[in-house]
Design goal:
Blueprint lengths: L2 H24 L1 E2 L2 E2 L2 H22 L6 H29 L10 H10 L1 H35 L1 H15 L3 H12 L3 H24 L4 H9 L4 H35 L9 H10 L3 H29 L8
Antiparallel strand pairs: 1-2
Helix pairs in contact: 1-2, 2-3, 4-12, 5-6, 5-8, 5-10, 5-11, 6-8, 7-8, 8-10, 10-12, 11-12
């Protein structure tokens, strides 16, 4: 099948999803799905979405704007289909909201709780951003020193691997005792969590420059710092960005978990632990949705910067 036929087939499948989805929601009642044909329509919607995504995924677009649009369309169709199935299954099978609320209920909670969610996000992300910057910068600086000193490489790296394996639920209460209940203690947890991935990845990346390139730099009478900035650090950029992307999710997780062990009456982790005790599961899912959105945007920003700076890497050619 040619690329044009694949695009046409995917477009038809996407257009057919809408009437079948309306048919499904028309037969959803408060006590479940009213007619068995509704479940057949649910299966058809899933098959249409799967067909559209599979057809679009098999096309190699040479034009960047079209390729970028299709690259965003594929996860959008897949994600909306998952939300559709979530909504239909929870309502059609009469799942108690205390176990798993439907996305529509979570959306209403988000709309009605925007001031609370904004305050929680501001409190948590303050610790995330500060800890992320300090942890990654410190890990990068120490990695350069470790690369410079064989003594530090043999002495610090094993200790670093040991500390990196410490559980966050063990570190968080200690950091709260040391730095108090405000965002500083959560930032300390984030620093510890992001320091060692950056250290390990940067040390590994600095060793990727080939011997031929290093010999060429020596023939130009380059000193250590010239070789570092003009050869070894550019070669290590994929490793560094890999650590930055890993840390973008670790930082948010670390800050939220740390808030379970002591925080002012604001923060995403505080809200999750409090609302679970009150059985307000829709508010818990609202906080989870906000955290997932913030983490995805943070990760996407780092990935975008990586693509701009490492366009020469074979993975982007």
């Amino acid at each position: 099948m040619s690329d044009r036929l694949k695009i046409a087939a995917a477009a038809i499948a996407v257009l057919l999803i809408w009437p079948f989805s309306k048919f499904v929601f028309a037969h959803l009642k408060s006590d479940g799905m009213s007619w068995n044909g509704g479940w057949v329509a649910v299966i058809i919607v899933w098959l249409l979405a799967w067909f559209a995504v599979s057809q679009l995924s098999n096309i190699n677009f040479r034009q960047k704007p079209i390729g970028l649009f299709i690259g965003l369309l594929i996860p959008a169709v897949f994600g909306l289909t998952l939300l559709f199935l979530w909504e239909v299954l929870t309502r059609g099978l009469s799942v108690p909201p205390i176990l798993l609320p439907p996305p529509s209920q979570i959306g209403v909670r988000i709309t009605n709780s925007l001031p609370i969610l904004a305050a929680d996000f501001q409190q948590t992300f303050k610790a995330v951003l500060f800890g992320y910057v300090v942890g990654c910068a410190t890990g990068f600086a120490i990695a350069v020193l470790v690369d410079r000193s064989p003594f530090m490489r043999k002495g610090l790296m094993p200790i670093g691997n040991l500390v990196a394996a410490l559980p966050i639920v063990g570190m968080a209460p200690i950091m709260v005792m040391w730095f108090g209940f405000d965002w500083q203690s959560k930032a300390a947890v984030v620093i510890v969590m992001t320091f060692f991935p950056m250290l390990v990845n940067t040390v590994a990346g600095l060793s990727t420059a080939g011997h031929m390139e290093r010999d060429l730099m020596r023939t130009y009478a380059s000193n250590y710092w010239q070789t570092l900035f003009k050869l070894r650090l550019p070669a290590a950029l994929p490793f560094i960005f890999n650590a930055l992307k890993i840390n973008s999710t670790l930082a948010l997780i670390g800050a939220i978990v740390a808030e379970f062990f002591g925080t002012p009456i604001v923060g995403m982790g505080f809200r999750i632990s409090t609302e679970v005790g009150r059985m307000n599961v829709d508010m818990v899912w609202a906080e989870i949705a906000m955290a997932a959105l913030a983490g995805s945007l943070f990760y996407g920003l780092i990935a975008l910067i990586e693509r701009r700076l490492t366009f020469w890497h074979p993975s982007y050619r």
